[in-house]
């Protein structure tokens, strides 16, 4: 399907790793793709992660890129940009370099919505936190962006967090503090198919699949909108 880029408005999803899109808010991405041109920007190739494929000699970074491309196609994403920063190294000294790599894409697409993870990175992953903060900075710098959606878990989904996965596991948000909850029932099968594309991350995939009933067929977001 070819969409008229001049008619449909743009959404840009900004993540740290391949699988962040599927293990997080794939349902919302699939819904947005029905009414918008959705682009994903992935800062790293995820090559510092574990490789659960039988062929452990395969190039993990390239494999995970292919997995993200497959997942994105299922979700209806139009384009994926890989920035090729080092997995696990998105620290302070790279903030502006990462932002500068993203700016030309935003200036070209002029998205009305940015989508990323909440400021604690959902799981506490420091790469996630970096990309969340960089997205907030980019929102401030680009007046054509009207809204940022920060994917988060609510207190009704607290059992879906993996304890001690990283040094710090964030506390889920109180439901009263969540700005938007999206019912993703209509795209649930697409969400499941997208998750299953990340075969190299089998351990994490199995955990996510085991937690889906607890998370429910809904996705929570903190939302920041530009003042008119």
Strand line-up in the sheet with most strands: 3-2-1-4-5-7-6
Low-confidence stretches: 1-5
User: Order of helices and strands, N to C?
Assistant: EHHEHEHEHHEEHHE
Mean pLDDT: 92
Q: What would you report as the Rg, rounded to the nearest angstrom?
A: 16 Å
Helicity level, as a percent range?
25-40%
The end-to-end distance, rounded to whole angstroms, is 35 Å
Question: Count the strands?
Answer: 7
What is the strand content?
15-25%
Count of helix runs: 8
Main beta-sheet annotation: 7 strands, mixed
Secondary-structure class: alpha/beta
Write up this protein.
- The chain is 37% helix and 19% strand.
- With 228 residues, the chain is of the alpha/beta class.
- It has a seven-stranded mixed β-sheet with strand order 3-2-1-4-5-7-6, sandwiched between helices.
- The longest helix is centred in the first third of the chain and has 16 residues, at 60-75.
- Helix 4 (95-109) crosses helix 6 (126-141).
- The chain contains eight helices and seven strands; from the N terminus they run E-H-H-E-H-E-H-E-H-H-E-E-H-H-E.
- Strand 2, helix 3 and strand 3 form a beta-alpha-beta unit.
């Amino acid at each position: 399907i070819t969409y008229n880029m001049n008619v449909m408005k743009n959404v840009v999803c900004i993540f740290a790793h391949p699988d962040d899109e599927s293990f997080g808010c794939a349902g919302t991405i699939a819904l947005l793709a029905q009414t918008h041109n959705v682009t994903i920007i992935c800062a790293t190739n995820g090559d510092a992660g574990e490789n659960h494929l039988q062929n452990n000699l395969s190039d993990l970074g390239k494999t995970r890129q292919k997995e993200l491309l497959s997942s994105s196609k299922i979700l209806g994403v139009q384009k994926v940009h890989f920035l090729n920063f080092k997995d696990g190294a998105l620290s302070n000294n790279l903030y502006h370099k990462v932002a500068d790599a993203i700016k030309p894409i935003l200036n070209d697409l002029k998205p009305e919505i940015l989508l990323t993870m909440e400021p604690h990175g959902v799981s506490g992953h420091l790469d996630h936190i970096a990309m969340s903060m960089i997205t907030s900075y980019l929102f401030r710098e680009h007046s054509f962006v009207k809204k940022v959606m920060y994917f988060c878990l609510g207190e009704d989904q607290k059992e879906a967090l993996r304890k001690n996965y990283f040094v710090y596991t964030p506390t889920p948000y109180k439901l009263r503090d969540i700005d938007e909850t999206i019912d993703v029932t209509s795209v649930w099968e697409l969400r499941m198919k997208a998750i299953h594309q990340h075969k190299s991350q089998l351990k994490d995939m199995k955990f996510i699949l085991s937690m889906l009933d607890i998370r429910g067929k809904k996705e929570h977001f903190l939302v920041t909108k530009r003042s008119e």
